[in-house]
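batch job 7 of whatever, protein = Molecular chaperone Hsp20
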Amino acid sequence: MANEPKLQVQEKKELAAKGEKTVPARYYVPATDIYETEEALTVVMEVPGVEREAIDVNIENDVLKVEARIDFAKYEGLEPLYTEYNVGHFSRAFTLSNKIDQQRIGANVEDGVLTLTLPKAKEAQPRRIEIK
């Protein structure tokens, strides 16, 4: 217990856009964890303050794109005394391999956490070979 790492505040990383955005707002890279099981990859992404209707998950040319937009109306008129992070939209993209079954990708959001399930294609899943 003496060697437990201490929790530390992580700075939000602002997205370095490759192109111009039509929405005049900051975009941030959401903190993300990826887990692998025999059946799928699970992507867990933090998108605090974003409503379910304001999240877009798209696949185009084997790239999975996630964009989550904040409703700035919630923050109008607020004068913060102290802030540790800026408010802004979230954006992240992942290149998918051919080992992911793109037709069966699922998404769920709860309490500001977006969970994507990327099932592996049948040929990418481990299987047991019967010995005769």
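notes: The mean pLDDT is 85.
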